[in-house]
Specification:
The chain is α+β, with helices and mostly antiparallel strands. The protein has seven helices and 15 strands.
Length: 266
């Protein structure tokens, strides 16, 4: 069951623009000890996405109440929040869409994250490349066909996550996580100003590194830059930080950056 506009149900109107056009945004948060972890970060993400998509009239106060209600009923879980523009007609015009749809759902926290943190993971280069769109880059909108294809190809490999490039062959992210790598005292992460998602944990890590001995820099680089990296990690709001042991034929030990960030990102 889903909490849709305050009602427990499992159906949504076929005229909802999420179905018709993928017209909306979402965030996925971790519930810990009955509370939404970094709730303000997730609300800010939704608000920024709605600003870009020109979705107005969202009842933010009610949404916060619903998020807290679901979190209070489950000590450890995953909370997914979807906002759509609501129902509309056949065409693209959103002129008469003034009632956004709220969809909240709770799922079990993936158990494999513990083993990933202990053993590290392998990344496989995805044959699917992300298109560039500066207007939509960074936000988590509902058009996820690229990620669906990335995941479908990944399921045919022995890797745990995918390494994803853009249409010009530059590093962007993983299928469901952001990417960082370390060379000596410098830490790098790809720009997400043309494609990819500016994840809440990515933002938190960049902020943590600003006040540390590490120098963090956003870059546009080909995947070959990982050949001489000392360490690679990935992150998202659920993991939250995972060490990478292998990217294609390059290997990395679990390193000092991971151990520095892990306790700060819980």
């Amino acid at each position: 069951m889903y909490l849709i506009n305050g009602q427990w149900q499992s159906e949504i109107s076929a005229s909802d623009r999420a179905i018709q056009f993928g017209d909306g945004c979402f965030t996925t948060a971790r519930i810990s000890s009955g509370r939404v972890r970094h709730q303000q970060d997730h609300l800010r993400r939704l608000q920024q996405a709605c600003e870009v998509l020109l979705i107005t009239e969202v009842d933010w106060q009610t949404l916060v109440h619903e998020m807290n209600l679901l979190a209070s009923e489950t000590p450890e879980a995953v909370l997914k929040v979807i906002l759509t523009r609501g129902s509309g007609g056949r065409g693209y015009s959103a002129r008469h869409c003034n009632n956004p749809t709220r969809i909240l759902s709770v799922f079990p926290l993936p158990a494999f994250y513990d083993s990933w943190r202990e053993q590290g993971i392998k990344l496989a280069l995805s044959p699917v490349r992300l298109g560039q769109n500066p207007m939509l880059a960074g936000i988590k909108h509902l058009n996820r066909l690229e990620q669906v294809l990335i995941r479908t190809h990944l399921d045919r490999t022995d890797a745990e996550e995918a390494l994803v490039l853009d249409s010009e062959g530059r590093l962007v992210e993983c299928c469901a996580a952001n990417l960082f790598w370390r060379k000596g005292e410098q830490v790098f992460t790809p720009y997400v100003d043309k494609s990819g998602v500016n994840g809440t944990m990515r933002q938190r890590i960049i902020a943590c590194l600003e006040n540390s001995r590490w120098q963090c820099k956003q870059v546009s680089e080909p995947m070959e830059t990982l050949a001489d990296a000392d360490e690679v990690i990935i992150c998202n709001a659920l993991m939250p930080v995972i060490p990478v042991r292998q990217v294609e034929h390059w290997y990395y030990p679990t390193g000092v950056l991971y151990h520095f960030l892990a306790p700060l990102c819980e």
